[in-house]
Amino acid sequence: MRPWVAPTPAGPVTGSLTVPGSKSATARGYVLAALGDGPSVLTGVLDARDTRLMRAALASLGVDVTDLAPGVVRVAPPAVFTPGDIDCGLAGTIMRFVPALAALADGPTRFRGDPEASARPVAPLLDGLGQLGVRVDHPASVPFTVHGTGAVPGGTARIDASASSQFVSGLLLAAARFDAGLELVHAGARVPSPPHIRMTLAMLADRGVVASASANDTAWRVAPGPIAARDETIEPDLVNAATFLAAALVTGGAVTVPWPRHTVQASDAILGTLAALGGEVDARTDTVTVSGTGTVTGADVDLTLASELTCVVAALLALADRPGSIRGVGHVRHHETDRLAALTAELGARGARVAETADGLTIAPGRLTGGPWRTYADHRMAHAGAVLGLAVAGVELDDVDATTKTIADFGTLWHTLVAA
Ligand SMILES: O=C(O)C1=C[C@@H](OP(=O)(O)O)[C@@H](O)[C@H](O)C1
Ligand SMILES: C=C(OP(=O)(O)O)C(=O)O
């Protein structure tokens, strides 16, 4: 594959764009619609690799997924799930959200994925399913097989969810369909990405499911019962939006994106982070505009609530006027790649001074030069390379197609905004 040279604009990047639908809300929307008590219509769904694989996974379990118009999909659950064959790709939302649903099918469902998928943890989730009465073969990593029997007894499970909040979400999403519901207890270090668990609980509540979290967010309960079918409009993906907003920060421009007034995404954390790095945030009723001065301010950035921003924020800090750091994100070592190692290697190779800490990175600007940028099959490493390229000519991404994981046409959107 020929490298993709990140565009370096001659002046401030100014413009507006609509970012495709939220990966996290689309994945939950599909899974909950598949588990619903009737057909649901989802509008504004993300159409990218992760969500295409999700559709294929659900279809393989007997769910009818029909396009009504671009971005509008009707999801009709079957009377009984059929055993399937699931390609997870590199999607955490598939390897961790679909097993509990497959456990409701009558027969074995095999989960496989990209070579990189086997490095991503799934054992705590599959161990939890085991405690709830489900047999799983090879539960250490992808590939594994879930042996459904048509019903899941449910009850109490105790797992260590410190490596990913998706273990919790994956059990909560299907738990109303377990015979005894679910009482889930976390035992271990802090559970990451609490806003994503809140999104799960909010979307369950929207469908009439009685679900709750303990005061300290270490235990959750879901009452058994139906999951109501529900038509829903999916919000734009605010994490992906942050990559485009970063272009304003680096170049001293202004970028506007649609922004929902009420959101289940970790949006405040994202906007607060861009402000901490020197951006000015103008939040209107339905949009947000971020403008920059052209100087990124180095800062100590706590990404505990928005760890998906790690790669883009690391690129911004490499371009900053003073040293900075990122903390609260130790678990991103388990994301699409070990993001702390990947960022240390790639930003380091381009001239920044980067060191890993226990839960993040320290980043000091250096003399930055263009050259190769490895993406490690990780969409967000690709976004980081693109952001670095805004100010450093000749950053060459080895695999810009990694971005198709959550945006079907990132290269076109980026060129349209940056090179306009
Ligand atoms: O539930 C979700 O949709 C997600 C939860 C988070 O996972 P982790 O808790 O593993 O960080 C996030 O990083 C991921 O991109 C999406
Ligand atoms: C961690 C991420 O993805 P996944 O849903 O595959 O875990 C991400 O998109 O940053």
UniProtKB/TrEMBL annotation:
SUPFAM superfamilies: EPT/RTPC-like. The lineage of its organism: Bacteria, Bacillati, Actinomycetota, Actinomycetes, Propionibacteriales. Catalyzes the transfer of the enolpyruvyl moiety of phosphoenolpyruvate (PEP) to the 5-hydroxyl of shikimate-3-phosphate (S3P) to produce enolpyruvyl shikimate-3-phosphate and inorganic phosphate. Belongs to the EPSP synthase family. This is 3-phosphoshikimate 1-carboxyvinyltransferase. It is found in: Cytoplasm. InterPro entries: Enolpyruvate_Tfrase_dom (IPR001986), Enolpyruvate_Tfrase_sf (IPR036968), EPSP_synthase (IPR006264), RNA3'P_cycl/enolpyr_Trfase_a/b (IPR013792). Keywords: Amino-acid biosynthesis, Aromatic amino acid biosynthesis, Cytoplasm, Transferase. It comes from Propioniciclava soli. Monomer.
